[in-house]
Amino acid sequence: MNAIISLASQSRESRARPVRIIRPFSFSATDLLRGFRELWQYRDLFYTLTVHRIKVRYKQSVLGLAWAILQPLSLMLIYTLIFSVIAKVPSDNAPYAVFAYAALLPWTFFSSSLTNATQALVSHSQLVTKVYFAREILPLTYVSAALFDFAVASTYLIGHLF
After folding, report:
1. Which residues, other chains included, contact 152 with Cβ-Cβ below 8 Å and sequence gap of 6+?
2. Domain total for the chain?
3. What is the pLDDT of residue 130?
């Protein structure tokens, strides 16, 4: 009887899931490489979530992909009207619309990245508490989606520069 009990307890112990202790990050080279290695292990999740963010963003918009260009373009028109026509701010002989658009693109990228990425862990708390994965992936997917918007909107700027 004791042999049966010991076999049952051994099989239960051998099937136990590994325990992962999450500690604060230290700025050592080994921890940094370990973190990058862990991100690389979850690259498929990163890709899937990034594509999901991009698809959801444009499926919910009537304008679709054009929204990535129209948002900074509308800001450019407002800033051009206010600063070049009303306030007469100099732009060093560059067309003020291109001058403003070139400045708005990185600002829009930074603003949307920071706004969305800071809320990523809070808005996906149900996912974070249920499954283990590299937590850095959630904010990075929002930054990657904003980078996609930046790339799309940059095509309009490149067209005006040449």
Report:
1. 65, 68, 69
2. 1
3. 84
